């Protein structure tokens, strides 16, 4: 067991808390420094006048014991299936004029029947898609250890593990838009071109269907913040320390070794054996480390790799329920929705939280609409230079969203009790994420996501985790990144990696 070693972790998001937990289990004394007043980072929710608005989760993976991730979760927090909602539908794709309506069931047989009913001319494609979804429901892509620790034998054996799945992975490695380009039905093409999944290879869509169907993925009742707080509680229970309202301005380096940090208020915390940034990647590399530890790959990554957009998040507390409405609606609009001068949308995702009664009072419901935009600078500048105009823009967008919901669901306008609008400037202010982005890199089509190192060239005793080293991001990935970096550190120290109440893992 490692002892008398100190680790400083920047950021009390999911990956930072996960890393802290595992390092505490392995004998490190850790301190987490968080710029906000609460843990969770982007995995958060907030209360407004009797409603709780969720800013993050649709579901988390690894809830079924058939997945390796289930064991990882249970090393940190005990997952009670009764505390999760399991979606029967990935979403309901609807046109505003009501002429098109397709339900994307998580049950593959029901999905097949639904898709064939709306696009019989594409029956062969649909059956092929459902066959792949059934296959991916049995596939656990989680690695047994971080790839940084793989030996030649691990690479050799991985061929045998992946061989049964390679045909499906190869076939469905392209975007869903590319996969459906030869389909005859425009309705089918639109139904499968979900905005969120457009940023992944098509097999991610199929794998998600499989996990949702076999109850390997679900929504934690109560929202995102209680999940983050349970992880915080676990970390503190293991003896860790969190400093809130403590924004890190600089990583302190001596002789190309990270030794500590300097806070924005001037406080210095040194004598660390390892420094881990679970914060924004761009801020870490180009601000805290002043761009001194980069190479051509890092420069290209941050300049050209497609990045996840930011968003205007409209959350509404409505004094009625929507028992007969789908909880997830992808609404195709008759006229584009104007977000700002640079961004307009042909479709918008709507979440109706009728599946979680803990978020609103009896007879009431929360509704969330995500409006994506890459126009961060507009919102940041507007908030700084003209707060009244900024407020009017938020009010305009909320009014336009309510009008869309009135046309789509009916009986909404007069029952809206609470309106909450978060902009890209909000995300930037509360999480310090580069350009207010809600996730990091897009996962480009291909067999595997692009590999991004957790270390920086020329800098010792320093690691990066969080969504900026994992294309696609997500809460589940964040937990794994924290676990992986602790395991890498243990290997560096020639110590067996341990989890509490579990045997050592060599």
Notes on the structure:
The chain is of the alpha/beta class and 506 residues long. It folds into 3 domains: 5-43 and 222-306 and 441-492, 3-Layer(bba) Sandwich (FAD/NAD(P)-binding domain), CATH 3.50.50.60; 108-203, no CATH class; 310-436, no CATH class. Helices cover 35% and strands 22% of the residues. The chain contains 15 helices and 20 strands. It has helices at 14-25, 68-76, 108-118, 123-136, 152-171, 176-179, 186-192, 202-213, 224-237, 281-288, 296-304, 376-385, 387-409, 424-431, 475-492, and strands spanning 5-10, 28-33, 45-48, 51-54, 60-61, 84-85, 89-95, 101-105, 217-220, 241-243, 248-254, 257-263, 268-269, 274-277, 310-318, 328-338, 344-352, 365-373, 416-422, 462-464. The strands form 5 sheets. It has a 7-stranded mixed sheet, with helices on both faces. A 5-stranded parallel sheet has the order 10-2-1-14-20, covered by helices on one side. The protein has a 3-stranded antiparallel sheet with strand order 5-9-6. Strand 12 (257-263) and strand 13 form a beta hairpin. Helix 1 runs parallel beside helix 15 and helix 4 crosses helix 8 (202-213). It is globular and about 65 Å long. It starts with a strand and ends in a 14-residue tail after the last helix. The mean pLDDT is 94.
């Amino acid at each position: 067991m490692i002892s008398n070693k100190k680790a400083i972790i920047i950021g009390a998001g999911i990956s930072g808390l996960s890393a802290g937990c595992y390092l505490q289990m392995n004998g490190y004394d850790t301190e987490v420094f968080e710029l906000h007043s609460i843990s969770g980072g982007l995995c958060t929710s907030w209360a407004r006048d009797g409603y709780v608005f969720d800013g993050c989760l649709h579901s988390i993976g690894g809830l079924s014991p058939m997945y390796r991730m289930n064991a990882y979760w249970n090393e940190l927090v005990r997952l009670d299936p009764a505390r999760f909602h399991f979606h029967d539908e990935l979403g309901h794709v609807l046109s505003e004029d009501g002429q098109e309506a397709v339900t994307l069931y998580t049950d593959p047989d029901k999905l097949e029947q639904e898709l064939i009913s709306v696009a019989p001319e594409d029956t062969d494609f649909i059956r092929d898609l459902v066959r792949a979804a059934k296959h991916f429901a049995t596939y656990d892509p989680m690695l047994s250890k971080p790839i940084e620790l793989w030996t030649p034998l691990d690479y050799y054996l991985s061929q045998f593990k992946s061989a049964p799945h390679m045909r499906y992975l190869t076939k469905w490695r392209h975007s869903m838009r590319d996969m459906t380009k030869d389909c005859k039905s425009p309705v089918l093409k639109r139904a499968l071109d979900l905005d969120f999944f457009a940023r992944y290879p098509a097999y991610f869509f199929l794998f998600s269907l499989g996990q949702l169907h076999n109850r390997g993925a679900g929504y934690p009742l109560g929202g995102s913040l209680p999940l983050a707080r349970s992880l915080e509680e676990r970390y503190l229970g293991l003896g860790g320390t969190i400093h809130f309202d403590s924004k890190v301005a600089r990583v302190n380096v001596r002789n190309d070794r990270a030794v500590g940090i300097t806070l924005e208020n001037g406080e210095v915390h040194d004598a660390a054996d390892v420094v881990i940034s679970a914060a924004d990647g761009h801020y870490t590399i180009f601000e805290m480390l002043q761009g001194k530890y980069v190479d051509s790959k890092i420069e290209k990554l941050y300049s050209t790799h497609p990045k996840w957009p930011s968003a205007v998040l409209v959350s509404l507390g409505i004094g009625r329920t929507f028992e007969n409405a789908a909880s997830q609606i992808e609404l195709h609009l008759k006229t584009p929705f104007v977000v700002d001068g640079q961004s307009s949308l042909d479709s918008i995702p709507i979440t109706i939280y009728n599946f979680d009664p803990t978020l609103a009072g009896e007879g009431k419901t929360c509704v969330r609409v995500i409006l994506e935009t890459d126009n961060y600078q507009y919102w940041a500048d507007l908030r700084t230079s003209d707060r009244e105009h900024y407020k009017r823009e938020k009010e305009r967008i909320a009014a336009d969203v309510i009008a869309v919901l009135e046309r789509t669901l009916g009986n909404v306008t007069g029952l809206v009790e609470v309106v909450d609008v978060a902009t890209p400037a909000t995300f930037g202010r509360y999480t310090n994420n580069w350009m207010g982005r809600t996730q990091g890199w897009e996962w480009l089509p291909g067999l595997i996501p692009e590999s991004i190192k957790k270390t920086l060239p020329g800098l010792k005793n320093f690691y990066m985790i969080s969504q900026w080293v994992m294309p696609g991001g997500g809460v589940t990935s964040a937990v794994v990144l924290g676990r992986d970096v602790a395991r890498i550190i243990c290997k560096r120290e020639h110590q067996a990696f341990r989890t509490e109440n579990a045997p050592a893992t060599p």
